[in-house]
Structure prediction request, 252 residues.
Amino acid sequence: TLQLALSSKPSSEVSYQVSTVGDVPTKDPLEIVPAGSVHDLTVASWDYLQIGNWRLGRTCELCDNSHFSISSDTSMLTSQIFQNTGTLHPGPRSDYNGFDVGAYTGPTYSLSGDSVQFGNLAVQVRDWRIRQINSDHLSVTHENGNVSRIYRSDGTLHGRVNSFSGYAAPLGEPKCAYLAKSYLQIGDWRIGALGIYHLAVSHRDGKTSAVYRGTDGTIHPGPRTDWNAWTIPEELVIMGSKEGCETSSLLA
Prediction:
């Protein structure tokens, strides 16, 4: 498979082809795409959100279960894996890494439309949702209803309480859910890159529930007031919408 990155989203009403001007070797040394070849393009979208040098995304297309991981390219380590069974698999580990494109357990992609969709205090990445359930809780949920992680505004971590499912309500229209260069904001929550080594999950009120460290793939749980993603200055929206974020306390 050859990957071609385009500067803008291709139109669904136009057919595209690409031709090579030189021999293109693939990872398999026995495979070479010869010069002058013409190929149809298949539009696909990666199943991840990139925050600084971190990726939150679906991994391992051919695995029996669905996996959603938090990984960094600093040391190519994975700090956290969520599984559709509702279980958690912490790092440090080197598999299920959203940057390891050539690996069996690497990032997945979708051929049917946009795999990343923003909604009402929520973002959906293929079959996973990160959603603010109410002003105190943010959950990570698989579409089957299993909740793998709940972040609480007091800085504590909880999991496998399916009544906090992000799929309990429709995704809805985008409202205060957006991706910027250094953070993902979902209502009163931010998941933000602090420098190149740390990713924090923080509530607007000042408590951080978890810090993921890229140098060694470890997790450092709260409650804590340092490493707060709300110290990151406001940035431009890459995807999603800031509409509704001006409300001081948001309810789903």
Remarks:
- The radius of gyration is 19 Å.
- The chain has a mean pLDDT of 89.
